[in-house]
Amino acid sequence: MKGYLPSVLMKPERSLKICVLNGSRQIEMVIDGQWVCLEVKPEAGLPRGIYQLADAKDPTQTRESAAYSSAIVHVNDRHVWQFSDDGIVKHARSLFKGEPKVGQPYDVSYEGGRGIAVDVPQQERAKHRVHTPESGLSLGR
To answer: Could you tell me the pTM of the whole model?
Structure first.
């Protein structure tokens, strides 16, 4: 169709989305009923796509235990968003001890709907160890 423009999916005011396209990661927010690009950053190894953070699930809303081990999609001063098997989950930023990095996987667990603190530096050190089968030792990279 000539001149056809697809409709824009609008979310509530102050909603965030992350657009990973063409080697960049755009952080956009709904302001005055329009999507506004707040910042453009490197893609940080995230897969191409548009991620609506407003649709993220909050693991504290359930009384179940859960574990997440995927890459971080976005971090701000209040929340950390992470990929999960069925979309994106939103964690409280206060759950993380240290600064989580976008694109890096972290192990985040909940028991009875309560988050267990994530020691970012410890997890990053553990992921940079190399296991040598001959000695059974783990060596830092």
So the answer is: 0.84
